[in-house]
Specification:
The chain is an alpha+beta fold. It folds into two domains: 2-40 and 205-453, Creatine Amidinohydrolase (Alpha-Beta Complex), CATH 3.90.230; 72-192, no CATH class. Helices cover 31% and strands 23% of the residues. It is built from nine helices and 20 strands. The strands form five sheets. A six-stranded mixed beta sheet has the order 6-5-4-3-7-8. Strands 14, 15, 16, 17, 18 and 19 form a six-stranded antiparallel beta sheet that branches. A four-stranded mixed beta sheet has the order 9-10-13-20. Helix 1 (2-12) packs parallel to helix 6 (206-226) and helix 6 packs across helix 7 (239-253).
Length: 454
Amino acid sequence: MKAVTTCLTFVAALCSCTVAAKTAEFTQGRQLFSADNYQVLTPRQRVGIENQILMQRLEQLLPQLMAETGLDMWLVINREYAEDPLYFTLVPQPTFAARRTTMLLFSRNADGSVDKLSVNRYPLGEPYQSAWAGGDLTAQWQALAAEIVKRTPQQIGINVSAHWAIADGLTAGLHQQLLKVLPAEYHHRLVPAENLAVRWLEQRTAAELAVYPQVVSLARAVIAEAFSNKVITPGVTSTDDVAWYIRERYEQLGLPVWFMPYVSLQRAGMPCKADSPACGSAGVIQRGDVLHTDVGICYLKLCTDTQEMAYVLHNDEADVPAGFKAALATGNRWQDLLTSEFKAGRSGNQILAATHKAAAKAKINHSTYTHALGFVGHAPGPTIGMWDNQGDTPIQGDWPLYANTAYAIEGNIKQALPEWDEQLLQIKLEQSAYFDGKGVIYLAGRQTQWHLVR
């Protein structure tokens, strides 16, 4: 607990200034201005905090999840440059690969604790106890089998899954080798560990939730820089220029993006159909344009996914016209309708259906496609709609909502603009948030005011 306390004390010092947006109706609005207002740890500094968080997850969270999913043992077996997707979430930093063949064995004891063993040529060190180290691959497999048999588990989880890609990391070759070395009576004890894998990846700890706001603030602050006159000269700057600014700015900060940023524009005379999944195009930015971006970064092993909107003022305008403000307010209203349906135990499909019902009553033309966040941007957890499917999503949409899990509150609304002769404007929003079991808290606030380019 001392390490965890130190971790929380340290990360609390990372927080820097933000400006709370004053809105008459919508809570948690926050306007950011520059990533210069936020500290970014060096790669060397990140190792300590990441490993402290990992220790908390392995010591406190993993025993809970193994008991919850009924597994006596969990095997994560992978090879160099063909790593299991979960591997880097389970091992201390700095780790560059599953060198040669790396085997992790987690065994639940009668008292609920979990032994953490490594069976590989290069011992990992704490928190793993080395059950075997050497150079002979045949001996390594035999050592793994002996350790399994010695502990007599009844349910042995392996990472195979027909439905969750992130829980399907055991390759066919390694699976066959495992069957060869295990006694036949153990074969039927091998079961998919997909429920444990999903829960491990989606569950956030107190230490992670302490640092997550800093990660999201950095993501939002770079968007604020990009959607300003620091980057945009109307009539000169293109949407592609802005997208590359965002990417290169993150690279300067040492923050990897997990997809190339998107930037698009909408303007009067460019029709947006009511049933179009996406409105907007590329081009040179002009006064009167509406801008949109979609960006995602990963920092301290936690990923973000953010979409925000900007307006480019005409020379005779001092503020955003009323119709545009009303459209953004409708987007915020849609967010509130969606997040008010977050109830622990509800499936993603149930949340989506309830949101559709509430939005129809409010006469909001919307599309909802919200997903989990965590160690990856499109993380496992309850799928709440998809951009190309506003009905039920089998399997992933049936997954229930758990407390202390993070989400990209993502979707869009369309609304007619009086200023554009009733042409539809699409407001596309995505903000990183978490569900604490009672309600949804935006990790670095949400956009309730337009970014302005003057």
